[in-house]
Design goal:
By secondary structure, the protein is of the alpha/beta class. It has 2 domains: about 55 residues, Roll (2,3-Dihydroxybiphenyl 1,2-Dioxygenase, domain 1); about 55 residues, 2,3-Dihydroxybiphenyl 1,2-Dioxygenase, domain 1 (Roll), CATH 3.10.180. Helix content is about 15%, strand content about 35%. The protein is built from 2 helices and 8 strands, in the order E-H-E-E-E-E-H-E-E-E. A 4-stranded mixed sheet has the order 1-4-3-2, with helices on one face. The longest helix is centred in the N-terminal third of the chain and has 11 residues. It is globular, with a radius of gyration of 16 Å.
Amino acid sequence: MAGCGVKGLSHIGVIVSDMDRSIAFYQDALGFTLDKRETLDGGTRLAFLSAGTCIIELIQRAGGNVPAAPGPVDHICLDVEGIDDLVERLRAKGVVFLSDKVNTLSGGLAGFRNIFLTGPDGERLEFFEG
C-alpha cells in the first residue's frame, strides 16, 4: 500500500501541573515559540510550542493534577548548537542541570556532547550536540 506508514515524529505530549509556568520555561528559558493554546471540553488545557521541527504539546488536566503516565517516557532530547553557551545562559537564569558540566561521549557516540536538566514538573530533558 503506497503512501502509507510513519513519516516522522509529530509532537511530544508532556503533562504539566501549571500551564503558565511551563509555557514560561519552554518559551523564555529554552527559546520555544508558543504556536497555539486551546481549552478542550471538560477543562483540559493544551499549548503547542515549537523550536525548529520539534513540537511539544503541554497538557494540563482540569484541576492541574499530574497523573502517572500509562507509558512513561524517560526523557525528551533536544538537538542544540553552542551547548556550552546555552548551558551558561540558562544557569544564569536559574535553570538547574543534573550534572556540573557538559559530557563528551565516547564509543559509538564519540564526538557528541550532552547534558540533562529537568523541566518544571520534573520532566527530564537532554541537550544533545554533535
